[in-house]
Amino acid sequence: MTTATLLVELLTEELPPKSLARLGEALRKALTDDLAQDGFLAADSQSCVFATPRRLAVQATQVLAQSPDKALEMQGPSVKVGLDKDGKPTPALAGFAKKNGIAVEDLLQIDTPKGKVFACRKTATGSALSATLAGKVEAALKKLPVAKMMRWGDGDAEFVRPVHGLVMLHGQSIVPGTVLGIVSGNTTRGHRFMGESTLTIADAEHYESILETSGKVVADFAKRRATIDGLLQAEAKKQQGTLGTYADLLDEVTALVEHPSVYVGAFDADFLEVPQECLILTMRQNQKYFPLFDGAGKLTNHFLIVSNMQVADPVHIISGNQRVVRPRLDDARFFYNQDRKERLEARISRLGKVVYHNKLGSQLERVERVAQLASAIARALGADHVATGRAARLAKADLVTGMVGEFPDLQGIMGRYYALHDGEPVAIANAIAEHYQPRFAGDQLPQHPISCAVAIADKLETLAGLFGIGQLPTGDRDPFALRRHALGVIRILIERDLPLSLADLIKEAFEVFPKELKLADAGADLQTFVFERLRGYFADAGYTAQEIDAVLSQRPQLLHQVPLRLAAVRAFASLPEAKDLAAANKRVLNIINKNEDIRHKVVAPDRALMTEAAEIALMDGLEKLAPQAEKHFSAGEYQEALQLLANIKPAVDRFFTEVMVMVDDAAVRNNRAALLQQLGTLMNRVADISKLAA
Predict the structure, then answer these.
(1) Which fold is adopted by the domain 345-542?
(2) Whole-prediction pTM value?
(3) Domain 562-692 class?
(4) Tens-digit pLDDT profile for residues 616-627
(5) How many separate helices (H) and strands (E) can be counted in the chain?
(6) Each residue of 426-480: pLDDT tens digit?
(7) Cα-Cα-Cα-Cα dihedral of 135, 138, 143, 147, to 10°?
(8) Taking 70 as the threshold, does the pLDDT of residue 655 lie above it?
(9) Domain-by-domain residue ranges, the chain?
């Protein structure tokens, strides 16, 4: 069968820039998956997506004009149901045959896992691309991740933005059809100002090159992004500056232009007296400019503009952008100067008018809870609990400043600047900024113990409060970012090596809430939630599910020690004795769980009841190894503690070979189970090694 390249393009009004690349890829996958399912794509077919502010397009090679015929096998009733006691067709069988247009005598009997059934085989004729493509495009569009649809004109068509053009080309042939009320053709539009207004696509294969040469549109998102990045880097180098972190802005700007050029703008150096975070945010967020930094990472008064116009003399573009940015910077300077006229401390009471949650009170009430919890954590860490409490009380005061009201992303950052201006100690000022950390995956952590105490308290108070009122995450929905808060607590405890008990932290977090709020007793649920996040944290670190389960099934409360336990488990698993000891441990736990007399209590084995040499040898081995293992465990030497188990393997093997545990004599049976309980305690001190048994 002959094949050709297929092109589908939707010409739209300006698409949402932050989701453009995602929309394009989703369209490509949905459409090509549908085509592949119906056999329209050859085995070596390749597809790609084009996404610009005004178009989404999918191009696929090796697409058939007619899908191949399909051999179908339909199964009907079982032989028992299809034939009566005289061997004649039942109504069920006759109905199946009629439905499939075949005589009963022509039906087949085939074997299936459920027995013999009647079946028929026939060939389904392939469908024409011209008859199905429009429907497939419509179906693909409905699968796109669009939160809110728009309607336009008098029709019922809906899409993320109004659609004004449709190209459906198979090779050089227009594929007829209507999508979203638009009839397909082979014409598109070039750049609004630089390219030809109407472009005829003579061949689907040449779409990209025609757009670029005649339309002045770089249609490929990745290519356009790389072009912009190269231009930015080159201009930054020319200006002897750097760009800082700009990947997110680069993606957004790529979705705003079709033919990029980069120009240099500047603003009055006097604005640099404003904290650079304010200026950076307003330039990036509001104007989509790329600020330039010096070699030390300090903001300069120059920025880069990504324009959708390439002109010989960009003076008007540059001056226009400089005029636009000045009032934005003026606003930032105004807020900064006004905010510093009132101390942060004086703003705290105003938090009483800010609702935190209708079931949990105001931000002021929340601040007092966080301060109480943070002070307790600081005491446990040996940090200054008075300074910690003050940092916690000041931590949210910048929420009622003009700057944070205008730029919420600056919360904490501005609080630090204002605290320093007020003469607060550096540790307190830093804690105001750092208590929000980590804000996202991979973000840096709070540095000082005071910062860590406030950060943990802030996150745990949120978790305890929302768990206490039943506001738990469900599926993909996590409106209060509780998963992020839990992971933040985990990262701080582990990566800052803080010797704090998770159970104690959760208990204290619930205790700071007044009884009149009537929070549910959700401490156990919250601890389970944290351990679920902990599993993901260590899975991302490269540990296997078995290794993680071996450690976390013990519910260790000192999370900072978990990495050491995992390393010990991994080292133990590499020992030649590990596999047999893990299996033996599994057997030990099964025996203990079946023995009701010792299952829920610790019973010391009695030597006087031991009659077999093998059980005495195991007892001797345990008495010798247990003190050594405990010494290693108490010192945090988990690897050494686990590796000691290799020494007891011969005694364990001999015990299970020569000794019958489940004897009739209850005293002897329970004594042997108690001996195994002691063995299990030794084996599972660091981790449940039975989890390593495949």
Answers:
(1) Hypothetical protein af1432 (1.10.3210)
(2) 0.82
(3) mainly alpha
(4) 999 999 999 999
(5) 26, 19
(6) 999 999 999 999 999 889 999 999 999 999 999 999 999 999 999 999 888 899 9
(7) -160
(8) yes
(9) 3-67+128-213, 73-123, 221-339, 345-542, 562-692
